[in-house]
Every structure is written in structure tokens, then in C-alpha cells.
Amino acid sequence: MIVAASVVVAAGAVAGVLSAFEDGRGSDQARRPQVSASPRLAPLPAVPSASPTAAAESASPSPSTSVRRAPSPPPSPSRTEQKRERTATVATRLYRHPDSQVLDWVRAHAGDPRHAVIAARIADQPAAVWFAEYAPDTLTARVAAVTSGGAAQGRVPVLVPYAIPGRDCGGHSQGGAPDLDAYDAWIDRFAAGLGSGEVIVVLEPDSVAQAECLSAGERADRFASLARAGRVLKAANPRARVYFDAGHSGWNAPGKQAAWLRQAGAASPGSSDGIFSNVSNFHTTADEVAYDRRVLDALGGPASLGAVIDTSRNGNGAPADGQWCDPAGRKLGRTPTLSTGEPRIDAYLWVKLPGESDGCKGRPGTFTASYAYDLASS
Q: Half-sphere exposure of residue 256, counting CA atoms within 13 Å on the CB side?
């Protein structure tokens, strides 16, 4: 059994942690005054997957609208389908948001013997900011706080919208918007905060790769909303680069994943700049590069489509025994960069912040210094 994307961090005012675990935390775990749900995704079968047992384990309540009217798309963005030079207009540096659990811990524990290693190897690196809380009234301002911070420094922020209905098939990370119409409206508000600077959007981890639990009709509805989301994001900010969920190299076969991605709009430059993989997982960069290229080849679309890979915890690869919950012996992967030197691989990103526990070495979703130190010193 292989996990899709372990515990992730939601953005509250700018980022957040589990409110359920605010009490009783030791000094090993960071505290934040403003909190929101920090989802964990359940273990999933290895590729290729057609297992009835796995489907049963992943079963979830159906989205609240099994038959829905297709939303009207926004005006087409100004981009054409001509091949683009992907690096010509992209800032060379990624943005490190000043509010995060690891930075909270570093500020509060200057005398801790682990401080120097965690500060230098994790806290100093740029990482994604997650928006997993369904709070539409504050969403635009929260997104704008991150994008404006990046623009002020001339750096590229990485944002993760994570509110699709039926999220995690009703598993550990269930939640999100109440239905797809509400999700469409939530995305509109998300897009309104994108500003006009360079930004990378990692759109809904596991929303495509984990779609097996949905009926064919529910899957089509979800994919229509994802395609719309891509169009809305890119229309709101033509400099936004939107990537769609390709799972990881230990999950769905490339052809199957590409077929779903095509339905979700990932082959259209009006919605998509390509795919992402390995979010919160451990598969080696080499395995992900090879897998992503196979998915892109099967996906079709313009040659400008590329891939981004989460390298936050994949330095030693995935455990042979399939352990997914804070497995021992893992280490940091390649540092985040927009210059990979690999054709069609646009970036290595830290989507999952190293040190945020899956729930075994610390409370789910919280930064745990002992785990961070193990990753950083391995």
C-alpha cells in the first residue's frame, strides 16, 4: 500500500496547522495561533491498480451533485497554443513565505541543539503554501498575502488549492467544498488573489490520480470543474503556471493517468502548464522524471507542457516495505529550483514541508523537530 500525499498544511491567515491538536503539544512541535484542518491522505494501491479491495477501502460519500449543469467558462485567456519558451519570463528564484511552522519553531528554539541544522537545511528553503480550508470569505485576501509577498521580492510563490469535494475519497483528509458548484465559486475567489506576478499553482493533489473511487458521472463532473479551475486561474493571471495531478511513479500506469488528465483539461494550454507528481511522497527524482515524461507523452498537447516534482522527502527513495507514515531512513531530496537541467521538467519543489508529520513521529500535520532533524541530518 502506498500513500498518495501524506499530511499537508492548510493556509489559514497564510498557513495553518491542526486545531484539533493545539493542546498538549510539547516543545518539539511548533505552535501557531491561527489554525485550520491539516489533511492526511490514506494509503493507496501500487500501480497498476484495479483492485476491488483497494476501491472498497477508498470508498467515500458521493459528491453532493451527481448531475450538474456545466459552469460557464470565463473568457479565454490571452495565451495561444503556440509553443512558448518556458524559462524566458520566469523569475529565477522561488519564494519563501515568512509564516510557516518550521519558521515558528526556529524562532522559538534558538538554543536547541538541532536548531542550526533545521534552520539551514529546511527553514531557509522555499516551500509551498497550502489552502485546504474551505473559508471563501477570507480566501482572496489569504492568497493575495502570499502572491503579493512573492511579487515584492521578485520571487515565485507556490500555492496549493486543496478543496475539491470528495477530497481523499472520504478518508483522512476528507473535507473541502460542500459541492462542485461551491468549489467553482471558491476557485473564483482563489483566482482573484493571484495578482499579476509569476506564480505556480499545484492544483488539487490526488484529485485526478485518486478518482477511482468516483462513479463515471462523478468523475466527469470533477474533471469538468478541474478544467474550469485551470481556465479561471490562467485567465485571472496569465503569468500563473497551473499543474495538474499525475499521482506518482508507484501509482497509476502512465496511459491511464494521462487519459484522466486529458479529461481534466491538462492537455490544453488554456487550462494547464503540465503536471505534478510525488506530492508528499518518497519516490526518487529519477523515477519521477521518467514517469512524468511517459505521462506527458501519453497526454499529448503542446510541447510546452512540462512537469514539477515534489522532492521534499525523496532523498533515499520510497521504503521497500511500502511504509508511508513518517517512514524511517528517509532524507531531504533536491533543494527547490526552477532550473532542473532536465527537458520537460520545469521545477523541483518542496510541496510537502519537511518535518510536518504524517501522524507517527508527531501529531498529524504538525511540525515535529525530531522528524525534521532526522530528514535533514541523514
A: 15
